[in-house]
Amino acid sequence: MTTTLSASVVPENEIDALSRLRASLPDGSELGKVLGAMSDGLRSGVGVTVARDDDQLTPARAAAMLGISRTHLYKILDAGLLPFHIVGERDRRIFMVDVREYLTRTMAFRAADAQSIAKRQQLEDDLLDSME
Description:
By secondary structure, the protein is of the alpha+beta class.
């Protein structure tokens, strides 16, 4: 079940307890990283959402998590870029794990694209320099 925790409802002493728990874990602990992100977010006034991989999201919720419009999300779903299943007669649901994997793929693509653009720009700069 997806749970969102508003920073305004968490007392400072509970955030401190979360930070102490994180500190008690071994260095490099994946759980420690998650607890650290939670405590840092809450301490800075940012809400935190915790979701299990098997949580099912509505298209509206998935779109909000991805930072895109629901209309754009439907285009992504219809293109087969993000798996979904039908509940009832026509309502779509998307597993959280699929949203996370889609986001990871999208970020990797954007990073590769940015590197390609930077490399092309460097080649153009080198060519212009050699012409001078």
